[in-house]
Amino acid sequence: MRACRSVFILPLLSLHLLSAQEPPFPDAALLQSKEPGTILVKSGQLYKHQAKFGLIVVPENRGDSASRRLSLPFIRHHARGDSTAPPIFILGGGPGKSNLWREMPDVFYAKNDVVNVGYRGVDGEVKLKCPEIGAAMTRANPLSHDALMEFRALVRHSYDSLVQSGIDVDGYTMLEVVEDIEMVRKALGYEHIDLFSTSYGTQVAYLYCLRYPNIVKRNLMVGASSRGKRFDGLWEPDVIAEMLKEYNTLWKRDQEAFTRSGDIGKTIASVLRSLPTSWNDILIDPDKVRLATFFSLYETESAAAVFDAFVAAEQGDPSGLALLVLGYDQTVQDTSRQYWGDFLCKLASGGIDRTRDYEREMDPPGSILGSPSAKLWWSAISGGGWPIAQIPARYQRLDTVRTRTLVINGQLDFSSPPSNMKKAMNFFPNGDMVVIPAMGHMDVFKLQRGAIDHLAKRFFLEGAVDTSKYRLHTIDFTPAETLPDEAKRLMRQSAPK
């Protein structure tokens, strides 16, 4: 069977990463023995426009005066018109994703330079890929107790391997990312900057504003998550249950969907209790179905496709869920897109209560889904799974940020539940938050591009909050192309001729 389309997104995934030609970065060898902050820049072209490709020398761990020095890439796009506004520094999602190859809407480049600073652990000399972690996620019943313990041991082995190879793992934290950005800002001579961040990048943006309150003029955060919840508080089972109820409310208002299932939550629960073991020799692993379902709920298109697959399974056709399992296995092993070592560094160092029993707490009795991703990752990190030093306590909790800030979240954002960020807005006295109805994590950026373009333009140039171009989004709960349809088509294509 050929590779199937991935129908869900990985944890904290943000803007779509674009492929690019081989970038003309300078030769890193020319920076050997240079002081931190030294840069080399080379002209080139990206997205059909001229750009500057740079390398900057950074310490691997700023907490160690004897730390080795590394080179880190950055890309500077010059404004395509008169540069009359502060540069916009882009902080994309992840963690474990590149921050270089993200093409922004044209409005971003009109009067602003745009700068992408590579994320250490992904874009720099040291690449924390750890493909063995992705491979381990494909084992059978990954949420069972035995599997979780084995996964934790494998994660710890990966950590030890990085340390033994000479990598100072404690240097791969969000605070180090913040200092990388600040070092590039100084090297390029910018007095003030704006920030545009998505998903995980919003936590980096918050920390940058906290550490450098007089540098950032305007801070636009899309799909924002609260630093007050740290990472281990993002996906609490009760919050997930409440958001499933919101989806269920919209489902019941759709007459066609309601005719097929009177309660999508009950359908999911019923199917998970009675899953067949296989479909056409494809094993249907219940834990992988839960994990893939959770990831699919990040955005409305993939959520609708998965809901449809559960309805089909309730009616006797589990082929869509079988396809979901195949997509899960393929995606978690895609080392071209996900660097699991960096993912774990940012999660574990960003603040996590290592005393909690995540295996039990993230899977409470009576819950439809529980919190499968949190059960997997927080269980792996705790108990000595990834013993990176945590960032200081003051950066693990919320503190006042006075930067002019605008937060845009989708009502149905499972990755960054808006209820968490609403509570955090008391710490943004010069901030506004807008929740866009019936949209998921990156839907607010991708589905109505004219709306986000208009909003970003007015905010960055005027500081205004203008969501007037957004129109009420209607979720298509009966997609024309379904997962069961695709599963059967793939099966026909793979059949012997």
Total of domains: 3
Rg result: 22 Å
The average pLDDT value, as a whole number, equals 92
The CATH H-level homologous superfamily of the largest domain: Alpha/Beta hydrolase fold, catalytic domain
Taken as a percent bin, the fraction of beta residues is: 5-15%
Which sheet architecture does the biggest sheet show? 9 strands, mixed
* Class from helix and strand fractions: alpha/beta
Tell me the strand order in the biggest sheet.
1-2-3-5-4-6-7-10-11
Uncertain runs: 1-21
Please give the count of helices.
18
- What is the CATH topology of the largest domain? Rossmann fold
Describe the structure.
There is one protein chain. The N terminus is likely disordered. This protein is of the alpha/beta class and 497 residues long. Strand 6, helix 5 and strand 7 form a beta-alpha-beta unit. The chain is 39% helix and 13% strand. The strands form two sheets. A nine-stranded mixed sheet has the order 1-2-3-5-4-6-7-10-11, with helices on both faces. A two-stranded antiparallel sheet has the order 8-9.
